[in-house]
């Protein structure tokens, strides 16, 4: 039964009677700061319009008992919950729902404690990646963590969907380096790895946030990084043989030394295409240059293209900040930088999609990609190619729910953004037509996708009754054979499907 105003009041009464201190962190549509709290972590302005459905209530818990109260009372009064950590979900699922709902926003639960001796850290879900990396580097120059590049991404969603960064070829995903977690389940119980059991612990490390419970905190195994790493970003125009070099990159990037990752950004600048090769090498330039000469001479990398720095400086640099800008920007959950490929000085509406590539794409197919870019007005679209191989190929497909391991040369990210607020059908149609153009060149049966690059175009649950068959349309793309095990875990952990959304894992015989 959908909740109405009466249910909302009952819900609020329930919260207050369950938890006496919760009033200070409740925001209803009548609270003066409701809109600013809602928009603070809304990262995609496609979901920030007057027509976007808004939560009945936002709660920003200060402790676990307030999260438990929110779960207990939402369940009792028929409100759906959406959990938000950093708010980067591409489809806004952490703060938009088409049924009456409550947002539990983790903004106040962002504590990080690093144990440099044990090489571990506990991090609460509301922390951002930038905050985590900063706190690790504060304790040791030789420790790091292999998560995503954008510092404002929240660890809550990121880790539960896998989470990759530019060290993935050496250390795998963020989720591959998680050793414990604190989760509140559908009964409101606080569980750790031991009490939740290995199945549930498996599911929350890549099975996508929000299907299994609310993750309060994660325990990480930190990785060792050298005191000096090397960064370069070099660009090649079409006249400088960009297409040939990118074509060659497909054969070498996934076979390079695992200390070396070279991503490729394809962008349109001043009406012509450009390939940007952006790299992190876990070592000094004197070791990098011979490696590049041996394996990828076509790029023509020179010593003065490279800059040596500490690992945390590379994090700051990869995020698009300039050398003169303070490292403290990594702590700021609203800091914006101006990278070459991702121009994100302000929040904007966007639509993104992803693909996996198992066979090199023929050279002439790139011409078709450029034609698509020439169709698109402005300079707001980009593609990023992320090489796999190394550690990514050593981990089995079933080790975590994230199945895209050996056999993948690279992943493609497609993104387009536009000005103003709201939906631009023209841009959405454009990215769909690019995705359609790519069909012959990318993975098939299923056409694989990455759950952290959420895309509702690939299938959604039916409202009302979520059938396994319907969910397997998108589920097999994100998780391949792991989808079945995720359904099994969901059936055990949340048989009544309390934690649900457009792309949540359904239990067997779900009727809600
Ligand atoms: P958000 O709060 O929107 O949550 C995402 C999903 O997880 C939602 O379904 C939400 O309900 C659920 N969730 C959130 N917190 C939860 C919790 N505590 N317990 C249970 N469920 C929870 N990815 C990547 O792998 N590498 C990268 O480099 C980047 N870079 C990047 C840059 C930018 C600008 C964006 C917008 C996105 C990325 N991503 C990425 C994708 C990112 O990993 C993905 O969107 C994450 O889910 C975001 O996590 P947040 O907590 O920020 O999102």
TrEMBL record:
Domain (FAD-binding PCMH-type): residue spans on this chain: 51-225
Matching PROSITE patterns: FAD_PCMH (PS51387)
Cofactor annotation: FAD
Region (Disordered): 498-512
Pfam annotation, one family: FAD_binding_4
Any one GO molecular-function label of the UniProt entry: oxidoreductase activity
UniProt keywords, alphabetically: Cell wall, Disulfide bond, FAD, Flavoprotein, Glycoprotein, Nucleotide-binding, Oxidoreductase, Secreted, Signal
Top-level taxonomic group: Eukaryota
Family: Belongs to the oxygen-dependent FAD-linked oxidoreductase family.
Annotated compartments: Secreted, Cell wall
Gene3D superfamilies reported for this sequence: 3.30.465.10, 3.40.462.20, Uridine Diphospho-n-acetylenolpyruvylglucosamine Reductase, domain 2
UniProt cross-references to InterPro entries, sorted A to Z: BBE, FAD-bd_PCMH, FAD-bd_PCMH-like_sf, FAD-bd_PCMH_sub1, FAD-bd_PCMH_sub2, Oxid_FAD_bind_N
Source organism per UniProt: Citrus clementina (Clementine)
Name of the protein described by the UniProt record: FAD-binding PCMH-type domain-containing protein
Keyword Glycoprotein found: yes
